[in-house]
Structures are given as C-alpha cells and as structure tokens.
User: Fold this.
Amino acid sequence: MHGARQPAAPHKRIRATVGFMLNLPIVFCLLPVTPANFDFHCHSAVSDGLLPPQEVARRAAGNGVDLWALTDHDDLGGLVIARETAEEAGMGFVPGVEISIEWRGVPIHVVGLGFDPADRGLSGGLDELRSGRIERARRMGDALAAIGIPGAYEGALCFVTNPSLISRAHFARYLVSIGIARDMAGVFQHYLTPGKPGYVDHRWATLQEAIGWIVGAGGVAVAAHPGRYRMSGSEMRRFLDDFKDLGGQGLEVTCGSHSPDQVMHFARLARHYAFHASRGSDFHGPEESYVDLGKLPQLPEDLKPVWRLLS
Ligand code: AMP
Ligand code: MN
Ligand code: MN
Ligand code: MN
Assistant:
C-alpha cells in the first residue's frame, strides 16, 4: 500500500547547528536544512519496540531517513544513545516521545518533538504516567484469567524490555507465543481493544497535561495517527479544536496506519486548522511493522512540514 516514494530532486545535505528555542538552556540539534525523508514516529525497546535505540537509528539511516525522531511511549530513556548513533550515521536527530492520554474517554496518543529532554516538568509527568502501567497490566492479567487465560501478566513481563514500560504490545506478543491468535492484529482485534475481554480502562494523562509538558519543555505537540481513533467526524473536529486551543500545532498526516484516503482526509483537516503536518512510520520492529522506517509516502506538497517549527 505504501510505496517507498523518494523525491527525485537531489537533496543537498547542508547541516546546520541550530539552537531552535532561544528561551531554552542549551538545546542544539543537528537538522538538515531541507530534509528529504523525515520520520518522526517510531519505537525502540525502551518502550514496546523490538530493537534497541541504536539499531533503530542505524536502520533509519540505512533506509535513507535524514531527519529522525525516536518517539518511545511515555519514556525518554533512549534519547541520548539515539542522538549519538544518529549523529554517527550522519542523520539529523530530534528528541521525541509519544504520550498516552485520554480525551473524553477515548485513548489518544500525542507525539512531542524537539523538546529539552532534561526538562523536569516533562520527565516528571512521564515518570508518573509510567507508574500506572504496572497496576493496569495486573488488571489486564486478571481480566484475561477470568476468561481462561491465566498467567498473562507474568507472560507479558517476559517480553518487557523496560521494566517501567509494559504495554498491550507485550501482552499481544505473549498471547501470540502461546497460540491464542495467529498474529498481533488478531490478538488486538479479539482481546485487547475496548469492549474485548482483556481491555481495561485506565487513567492516562489529560490532553492539557501532555501538551503542557511538551510545550513547557520547548517542544511541539503533534496529534498522532488520527485515523486510528474511533471517533465520528464531529468528535474528531471537537478533539482538534481542543488540541489547538491547548497549544497543539501538528497533525500526523502520513503515517504507517493511514490509508491513502485517510492521508487525504487528514491533509484537509491540517489545512483547515493550519496545523503543521508530520510523517511517521510508527515502526516497532522488522517482523511486526508493516511500514519500515522512512518507507512511506511524502506529505502532500502544499502542507507545512512540522520540522519547520523546529529550526
Ligand atoms: P498501550 O500503550 O499499552 O495501550 O499499548 C498500545 C500499543 O499497542 C501501541 O503503541 C501498539 O504498539 C500496539 N497496538 C495497538 N493496537 C494494535 C494493533 N491493532 N495491532 C498491533 N499492535 C497494536
Ligand atoms: Mn507501541
Ligand atoms: Mn500510538
Ligand atoms: Mn507509536
């Protein structure tokens, strides 16, 4: 579905060291002036990805990504090594994170980009957010035990690579390993999504908190994979109204889970709201992810790419 369409024009890789937020302490970032292939959404083993951050960085560079953000769920622990490896590979790097929130009962993800990773408001908020995941995972284990699948919490822990970050993806990997379903998509469809037996409610961050942490740390907030939320058109517009009112500036238009129709739909919404557009594979691992790092269509040309806000 998503071809690896690269721009035909040769890309002049002029690199500049830019302090991109004058009001921050010393936050510098190596940004290509005109990135040809940016990927601002992916995961490492610091959250629920399968590869360590340095391997994700090398894979991105090998795939031709020239401006890259690692966006692990609710955790900044991979950013130092990710930046070092990106710079060794000659690839621009932007600090990133994907924050789990709940808005009017709907679980939503907000990507933060270009913030100061040392900011205590952001890191403290994320510490608290992660601490709720263990208790939620235990409840997921109980819920699965109640339908005859015992030991799922302990089983999921065997797949966890960061003890403070257990996600539904770890449960899904465990459930596939014991033959409950053939693949991750099947597990999510039958067990781990709202209304299914292994899904439990959880109090995530609020939209206001997540945007406040990101913007307070000098970053840009982007609404992640909007096509994945179960919302009517009017609910989506109400969400985007709130997102913008609270300081959100970006919308993921091209991403690993969007169909071409969804790309066009969210491009229209980005124009309507004057959002900057982001592009991200949401890569989790070579065997799992349908879209590899950087291997997705370019943004529609008239949209303002979100990297412009970072330099
Ligand atoms: P959590 O943050 O614990 O709610 O887990 C969410 C994660 O589960 C996502 O970031 C994906 O890694 C994974 N996920 C959610 N839905 C699916 C799906 N349908 N297929 C595969 N993985 C999914
Ligand atoms: Mn994930
Ligand atoms: Mn997500
Ligand atoms: Mn993601």
Summary: Residues 48, 73, 100, 167-169, 184-185, 188, 284 surround adenosine monophosphate (ligand 1) (CB under 6 Å). The domain at 131-192 is CATH 1.10.150.650 (DNA polymerase; domain 1). The first helix runs from residue 53 to 62.
